[in-house]
Amino acid sequence: MTRKALFVAGFMMIGIVLGRNIKEIEALVFCLLLILGVFCAAYYFLPQYFKKEKLLFILGFLFLTLQLFRTYYIFNILEPQKNLDGKHVYIVGNICSFPEISDKKTSFYLKTKLNSKAVAIRVTTESKKSIFYGDTVKVSGKLKIPKGKTNRFGFDYREYLKGKGAIYTLYSKDVEVISQGKNVLSLLNRFSAMLNNLIDRSFKNDISSLLKGLILGNKSTIPDDVYKDFQRSGLAHLLAVSGGNVGVLCAFVEILFRRILKVYGKGVNFLIIGVIIVFAIVTGMSASVVRASIMAAIFYTGRIIYRNPDTLNSLAVSSALMLLVNPLFLFDIGFQLSFLSVLSIILFYKRIYEYFAKLKIPRGVSSLIAVSISAQILILPLMAYYFSEVSVISFLTNIVAVPVAGAVVPAGLMYCLFLVFNANVLPLKWFLEICVKMLMYLSKLSHVGFSHVKFILWDEKLIFCYYLVVAYLIFKSFMSRQLKYVIYLSIGGLLVAFIFQMLLNYNRLIINVIDVGQGDSTLITYKGFSMLIDTGPEYEDFSSLKRVVLPYILKRGVAKLDILVLTHKHSDHIGDFDYLLDEMKVDRIVTSKEVYLENAQKLKEQKVVLVDNLKVYRYKDLKAYFIPPVEEDENNSVVVKLTFGNFSMLFTGDASYESEKEYVKKYNLHAIILKVGHHGSSTATSEEFLENVKPKVAVISVGKDNIFGHPSNEVLQRLKDRNIKVYRTDLNGTIDIVVDKNKVMINPYIVR
Predict the structure, then answer these.
(1) What is the pLDDT of residues 519-569, one digit of tens each?
(2) DSSP code of 738?
(3) The dihedral of CA 38, 39, 42, 44: what is its sign?
(4) Cβ atoms of residues 131 and 110 within 8 Å
């Protein structure tokens, strides 16, 4: 077995996946015994092969076991203490990461002790004090246990922080620096901060934000709309320091010393390895740059000892080393995309290059096209799964953008080094500005209609199918007939399961009360019809529509909305709704006159239905009644009643007592499920209203530990007194209500 690292890395990944999914210690022990049994069977049935690679098999089993236990520990034993959640604390600790600095806040990881246990905490502050890796600081604030995944397609913040070694979060108004760090990493952090400041001072904001991404991997100040353009044009990878940057830097140092300064020998290789390590640290140690740095270090180490390393084996070694340091790297999107893109180039570059070379296309252009296309093959399904869209023009834009960005890295670093010595080299500055403007122009191609494709109905089963097909096409000449049949059956089975699942959901009425924190958003789908009631909250640094609601809608297979209901003007209900109109076709918007007048410009050229009296919308056997707001109520909301056979559900927005009194007099409000008004505020859900609606189930959309004290104990007691089953998004996450004929199933994402 020539590529032993590939074998070991594979076993490590198996151990990590098992450790993440096994919940009981008994299952863990059984799993290990089963794997040991497989090894024993291999020793018995394949004695010659096993004896030849005995050490490798033992090593693989040991690493599998190690990663299995480590991952099990992280997910099942390394848990925060619940009694510390919400507790106000004063903490002294050491900063153990490079602080992430944006215009509005600074975030960093702090090593400290809580109840005599060593822990790491992610601290966020608005303080403008200069802090660096290794500094000893004092912070104060409420400890929070980070929020986990609250819907099937959501982002698991708790798991993300565990991957960084942290199990608590804390917001501190101020940071008191007790002592400054004096180790090498502290110095490199200060150097990185100095480079960022030099770029900020030398260029306008639009240029500097992109330059910091291109050179230093700092994306914190790039505007969302600019980053979206780069993403949709297939250029977002340029804004995260990766293998391309490391390769360009290595080439630059080689040319500088070997061709210009005429310095040869092993010393140059050692120097390049040192430069790579410094560069990786200064740029933040992202998964992609660490992977590239390890592979480059292996390459130059091979030069020193006169051995040519195998690229695929080097890739496996880098993955094994990274997973050994932190097994949760395996679930990091950057890690997955970085490794798969390099693996894709290794597998497909040569064939694609030879094809374009036969077409008499110049070698340089053929190489760029081949790299651009081959890098996409294995990451396409993950791009579609994670981001719900794929750039169509990426292979074209990268032909121009990659060489331009490659020139920016050495030129930008040289320019910054000159600035350190107060030398402003204008030709270099002009060159960098021209390059960045070229990249910005290329990114604007994302506004062309066919530049990107949105993917819906894309789940894990289709991803497995895709990789099975790719594996079959690569290895079919080496496969036995029996193995081919197994692959055919696997692909067929996955496709049948996917189609069956889609048909089943298509014929059901599905109501998803999405967990958007302190706000409201509900998706309703039935036989191709889709309606969204409110878009969730928008804050200064967070848009639930962009981060939660829109990704959820797309992953639920909704490409367009038949109806968007904007219940009332409050930003916790209709935050960023105009962004949704830009991203998705909406047939009609149902709202109040007040909302329309306040947002007339945003609603321009949209088909708007004003609910000034009772309006009814029918789709097959589904009916939606839109009840007009009551003007005397300052929270005047459009109320929606949904009926489907014997099933009914009432959505009351933020309607208060004043509205409820009027509705009780005029309308039939009886509903099996009540979406409780105003997040469970004591200003709504009166006794009279509940008597009229007579719900069996109540759903409350509310944020955890919100400042308003929602839901009120008074409302909860009223619901309890009437034996109404209560579901809450702060406790249960997203709540799925599935209606199949006259059968109603309520499936909270988090069961308590």
Answers:
(1) 999 999 999 999 999 999 988 777 899 889 999 999 998 989 999 999 999
(2) E
(3) negative
(4) no
> What are the contacts of 267-276 at 24+ separation with CB within 8 A?
269/300, 269/301, 269/303, 269/304, 270/300, 270/304, 272/296, 272/300, 273/297, 273/300, 273/301, 275/249, 275/250, 276/246, 276/249, 276/250, 276/300
Find the helix or strand (DSSP H, E) in which 616 lies: strand 615-619
pLDDT digit string, tens, across residues 268-327: 888 888 888 888 888 878 888 888 888 888 888 888 887 777 888 888 999 999 999 999
Distances 453 to 340, 370, 728 between C-alpha atoms, Å: 21, 22, 35
**Residues whose CB falls within 8 Å of the CB of residue 429, separated by 6 or more in sequence, listed in order:** 202, 203, 415
Query: Of the candidates 671, 674, 667, 675, which has an alpha carbon nearest to the alpha carbon of residue 644?
Result: 671
Residue whose C-alpha is closest to residue 748's, from 736, 740, 739: 736
Q: Are 300 and 247 in contact (CB under 8 A)?
A: no
Encode 259-288 in three state secondary structure. HHCCCCCHHHHHHHHHHHHHHHHHCCCCHH
Those residues whose C-beta lies under 8 Å from the C-beta of residue 189, and which sit 6 or more positions away, are: 98, 99, 132, 133, 134, 181
CB-based contact 105:127 (threshold 8 Å): no
Could you tell me the two tokens for 176? 């008191």
User: Residues 6 or more apart from 23 whose CB is under 8 A from it?
Assistant: 76
Instruction: Give how far the C-alpha of residue 715 lies from the chain's centroid of Cα atoms, to the nearest Å.
Output: 36
Whether pTM > 0.90 for this model: the answer is no
DSSP 379-438: THHHHHHHHSEEESSHHHHHHHHHHHHHHHHHHHHHHHHHHHTT---HHHHHHHHHHHHH
